[in-house]
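#struct-help
A.M.: can someone run this one for me? Single chain, 94 residues.
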Amino acid sequence: MLVEIVQLYYSLFYLERKTTIKKLLSILTITTLTASIPAPLLANKTLIRVKRDVGMSKSNKVYVPIKEKNGITGKINSLAVDSKDNIYFRTNNK
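D.P.: on it. Structure tokens below:
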């Protein structure tokens, strides 16, 4: 009877140790894989599409070159949009 208890205890201890090692290996594997994923994929940020030198007409929603809009001739430094969707351009022109 004592031998059976010792064998049972040993088998339970071995099984528990084996399970613990499996859990540790699993955690290490997940941690390693997570660390190897590039940051942009891990962050899952929304992509922003940028259109250079293109503006949008409010009247017909057609994309037009910015230089055709409002007679802009110089380089544009920045854009600003107010609460009424009016677009303001800052240029190099004085």
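A.M.: thanks! Residues 2-36 form the longest helix (35 residues).
D.P.: also worth noting: The chain has two helices and four strands.
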